[in-house]
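ingest -> validate -> predict -> emit
validate: passed (alphabet ok, no gaps, 363 aa)
predict: started
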Amino acid sequence: MNKNGYNLALCGYGAIGKGVVKIVNSLPSSLNIKMTKVLDKEEKREELGELFVPSYLDITLDPTIDVVFEAMGGDAFAYICIKSALENGKSVITSNKETVSKHLDEYLSLAKQNNCYFLFEASVGGGIPLIYTLLEICDYDHINRIQGILNGTTNYILTRVIYDHLSFEDALKEAQKKGYAEANPDADINGADLARKGAILASLAFNKIIDVNEVKTYGLQYLNQKVIDEIQKMNKVLKYVVDAKRVGEDISLSIMPTLINEEHAFESIKYETNGVVLSCEFNDDVVLIGKGAGQLPTASSMIQDLFRVIKGNGEIERKNVSKATLLPPPENNYLVLDKNGDVFIKYLNSFELNDYPFIARII
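emit:
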């Protein structure tokens, strides 16, 4: 790698990509770090000017480029770009939780084979230095459980619904207007986004290969006013929680609406803020809180990874990794909405959880 400077390229000039360019352009000129090429659709050509390139090969086959940022989202094309960059010895920094959750170990293996780095701090937790912290803890301790609020969209919506008494529909529209929710919010509301993030964290913490398609998700799409009224009568707060736990050699990993008491650590995590509790064997609970979404918080995590590349400490090594057996959520008391529209509390086992349109674990 060029020790006198670093030439960067970017795949995806959306909100996050623009944030990356903005921060790179703000760095001291003495560092000689330059964004030299940006890949996006043809309609971005005029806006990008001389930075614009129409093909990923213009980036991945260019011997002058040291580091490639990937901020496109999705998997199919992102996979092609990332794989090509790593095969050509270019370090890759991504914010893309979908592709990381599906191909993590392949990407890490390619990076090692080609003497470069694959880094993905921004894929989980936005601006929170979460993955790096988790990996540091794993060097000397055992993480036994991860609980997290890791979706800024749904946390914003639930905050407005539970605390500010908006309807679910109005809160969603407001989140979309503010840019927290996509025009199609399905991946947030049905738990797919959280499943990807949970799979990444659990895979790293427990040294397992996790098939993201096997992660159990229980969504918010059937949350209605009747359920909300019942929650408020209980003096509980509703959060959408990732819960990953080591159970012997297996892992319990679920994405589920969860009712907490007002004194719970998650009660103060509101709006688009994210929070994670890492329960460790020696270090007890480590709590990390910060902006989980937004252009600049996410882009800043990608720039953190850039400086790990520059300092030569970006290697993530995985040894003796085995395929995880995922267990269903445990028996517990749940608030349920049945198909008749009735809301009540019921003790459910893992086989009964899918019998109801909406369930929320009570802790």
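Residues 97-113 form the longest helix (17 residues).
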